[in-house]
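Figure 2 data, in text form.
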Amino acid sequence: MPTIEANPPVITATAHCPLCDAPLDPEHPDACTKCDWVAPDHAENARGGNIRDKIAVCLSIVPGLGHIYKGYKMTGVLYMIGSVFAFAFCFLAGAASAGWGLLLMPLYWAGIMMQVYWLEDKALKALQAAA
């Protein structure tokens, strides 16, 4: 009869970070402590949006206000100035196309709102760093 060991040896392969090749912590193999790498399915990457993201989207009814709220002041001002030209172009396109060009305005608004929703919140990071 073959002999069977009561406790066979456990072979542990240490996972390594794909960026810096540092050994990963066996307790948390989906994030590197040496560099900023996290696995694609890590909880940090699963953003559902917080209340500040939703407020920024609501403020983006006036294009640029959501960006200013999230800490991107220059970008917000540029979107405000650019929206005047964008809306003027939409009205011009609407006049030239029997009103169909006016459908560009909701697309512009939706694009601005989606962009500010997924934008990193610099103002919140500044508040957290100050605390």
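Caption note: The radius of gyration is 25 Å.
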